[in-house]
Amino acid sequence: MSKELTLKVNGETYTFTVGDNLGQIPETETLVETLRDRLGLTGTKLSCGEGACGCCAVLMDGKAVASCITLTTECEGREIVTIEGLSDPVTGKLDPLQEAFLSHNAFQCGFCTPGIIIAAKSILNKNPHPTVEEIEEGLSGNFCRCISHYQVIEAVKSIL
């Protein structure tokens, strides 16, 4: 017997069945796999697969979570927002945080950038006026090999 699973991602509702048959979501499928492979939301990156690097971060009910270690079946009734969901769905205008990353060159190759932006958004959701120390602590789980986190901190501070 298969069970139905409803996901709300970036304001859209998706219904799947859970099971082992073709087209169903296996109990072991992670959220990052569902987002990328089933919904085509490739902004969320898979890197370490262990929840340690922050590249796969998405917002779940406003809080950053590692989608590589979150089972899709655990997301029933939760509000999921990916990097694609931060922009205005009508106008396509980027979120002010995304704009700040662009204007402060807070990225280089861009692979980890979506996860860092999501983590920063989570920080701002919790506290709209964080201190530099709170920003640094909130981003401590995000790893980037290309840039200094100085640009990232400056980008986040610029929208406070």
Précis, in short:
By secondary structure, the protein is an alpha+beta fold. It is built from five helices and five strands.
Polypeptide structure, described:
- There is one protein chain.
- This protein has helices at 31-38, 96-103, 113-126, 132-138, 149-158; strands spanning 3-9, 12-18, 57-60, 63-66, 79-81.
- It is of the alpha+beta class.
- The chain folds into 2 domains: 3-84, Beta-grasp domain (Ubiquitin-like (UB roll), Roll); 96-158, DNA polymerase, domain 1.
- The protein has a 5-stranded mixed beta sheet with strand order 2-1-5-3-4, covered by helices on one side.
- Helix 2 crosses helix 5 (149-158).
What are the main properties of this structure?
5 helices, 16% strand, DNA polymerase, domain 1, 160 residues, five-stranded mixed β-sheet, 5 strands, Ubiquitin-like (UB roll), elongated, alpha+beta, single chain, 2 domains
Widest β-sheet, arrangement of strands:
2-1-5-3-4
Roughly how many Å is the radius of gyration?
Answer: 16 Å
**What is the number of helices?**
5
User: Could you say which structural class the secondary elements and strand pairing correspond to?
Assistant: alpha+beta
Report the principal-axis shape. Answer: elongated
Helix and strand string, N-terminal first?
Answer: EEHEEEHHHH
Largest sheet: 5 strands, mixed
Mean pLDDT figure: 95
Report the CATH architecture of the largest domain: Roll
Percent of sequence in beta strands: 15-25%
Please report the distance between the alpha carbons of the first and last residues: 50 Å
Number of structural domains: 2
Domain 2Fe-2S ferredoxin-type: 3-86
Protein name: (2Fe-2S)-binding protein
Keywords: 2Fe-2S, Iron, Iron-sulfur, Metal-binding, Oxidoreductase
Organism: Ruminococcus turbiniformis
